[in-house]
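User: Please predict the structure of the protein below. I'd like the answer in structure-token form so I can feed it into my own downstream comparison script.

Assistant: Understood. Taking the following sequence of 401 residues as input:
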Amino acid sequence: MNAARSGLLSRVNREGFVLPTVVFAVAIMSIVVVASVTTSQDERRASRAVRESTLAMYTAEAGLRQTYGNWPAAVKNMNPGDSLDLGWQDLPNKEKYRTVIHRVDGGGLQEYNVVVQGRRTGLNAGISTLLGVVGGVPIFTRAVYGESMVWIQNAALDSWDSGAGAYVAATANKNADVFSNKDMTLQKTTINGSAAAVNTITLNNGPVVTGTTTSNAPVQTPYDQQACPAGGYSPVSPELAAVGYTGNGVLNLASGQTLNLTAGKQYFFRSVSMAGTSKLAMPGGGPVTMMVQDSIYMAGGSIANTNHKATDLAFVNCGTPTDPTKTNYWGLTGGADAYFSVYAPTKVVYALGNSSFFGAVISNIFYITGSAQFHYDEALARMASPKLVVQKATWGQFPGN
């Protein structure tokens, strides 16, 4: 009797234990299933987020390359601190990008930050932001450049920085480098800087070069010829009318005449000729650019850049000669106020007289044979440049917003 009762109780106890066990197992399995489903969804969302983020980055990179390849002309009108928003641009596959260009330099050699935001459309769209940098290429990095020949005889060259103060001979720098993309002749001269030529350097009568003297130097990329301004030669304006200019592109200054150049203005002439005691003056300061297609000849004229900054006055050769049979020499006169730069990569440029020159020269052939003093203005290397380049190692990725 007792044994039967014990067996019955044991079976009842076992049956009462099975139900909680089953319920517990079902709960555990439910948790496992929910966790698996949740994990799967999380992984899917994470995978989708990575995919969308990657596509957004590719979109931003495509926008950055597109901006580099189609650099907007409006950039050249930007002042330091300005920004140019190019707006949202659509791409296939529900993608779009927006480019904003910021000018971040202080007003000299250009520096632009290019910020591109790429995004995908939709609820789970990814966003990515890339940064690139575009900078100006310095033009006047030397005192003298000659594509075919540099000939310096008797002159003395040194340098200073007009951005740091006036030229003082006693404290002048030794950065007046000279380079020829072919040959060079130095005769009884002193160059406070380095001299280099792709072919040979001929040294006569004990020239002094304080830096290095290098023959068989690597060939440099030739300088580009600038295009002439659209719209033809400069029209008659009050300052040009005062010296008898008629608008035909030929500027002839007779002895005693002074042309007072207007600050911030660009002039375009076919040729410039200055006789006797004529003068190009800058009463309002700079910058002033004189674009010249053919020749310049300052037989007895002079330049009066009283601000004493070569960055304020530029002579630039442009276009093709109106008469290809002529060499179209550029003969320039120095003086106490002769502060200017010369960009004439296809012209023969020669210094007239024994006066001082303050600035830099880019030419095809350069001659200076008197006892002139040539002072390279290092501030010219920081001037705004017509040539821009994507700077290396400037690509960067940032969070989407």
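That's the full token string. The mean pLDDT is 88.
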